[in-house]
Design goal:
Radius of gyration: 17 Å
Strand content: 25-35%
Number of helices: 6
Number of domains: 2
Strand order of the largest sheet: 5-6-7-10-9-8
Length: about 180
């Protein structure tokens, strides 16, 4: 397994979250052989376990950046999010995948594509607020990740008892969530 580790040289590397901490940020990028197709979860878990191990020997590291989700973690946040998963606990969905609100009120994941080959778009108006959308999105993301992706439409029952459909849209390269 290869790990593109950057962020410790002088000057901010491409994709650096904050040039002010150049030389102190571990930027995690999947190696070329992992970027070329969806990456299986056991490999992703080992990738993050390796990053956790590196933190133990990199004295000048102050933060960790995960570009696919656009997330930057303090060392404590990174360890809290990923050490449990490394040790056999739950997958840290919120740390792996961001959920962004689009202009039309829909939600779109950021960071799911490297894991299953598609992002997820949740239609606007399905949830009362962003908190409810995040809770349901986490369940849907977890399911899709554990299945290794989604090849055909699936029907889910939400916490409120209403059903929603997740449909792969190959042309758009997304999974669409609608009622």
């Amino acid at each position: 397994m290869s790990l593109d580790l950057c962020g410790f040289a002088e000057g901010a590397p491409a994709g650096s979250p904050d040039p002010a901490v150049a030389g102190e940020t571990m930027i995690l990028r999947l190696g070329p052989h992992l970027r070329s197709s969806p990456t299986p979860l056991p490999v992703v878990r080992q990738f993050f376990a390796g990053a956790l191990d590196l933190l133990g020997v990199l004295d000048n590291c102050l933060q960790v950046h995960w570009p696919p989700a656009g997330k930057t973690f303090s060392l404590g946040q990174f360890e809290a999010a990923f050490s449990g998963w490394r040790d056999g606990g739950d997958m840290p969905v919120e740390a792996l995948v961001a959920l962004e609100t689009l202009d039309d009120g829909a939600f779109e994941t950021r960071g799911l594509k490297p894991l299953i080959g598609k992002e997820m778009v949740i239609a606007s108006g399905l949830f009362a607020d962003a908190g409810e959308a995040r809770r349901v999105a986490d369940r849907l993301i977890r399911h899709v990740l554990l299945m290794g992706g989604l090849q055909s439409e699936e029907i889910f029952t939400g916490l409120d008892g209403r059903t929603m459909r997740i449909t792969p849209d190959e042309a758009a390269g997304v999974l669409k969530v609608q009622r």
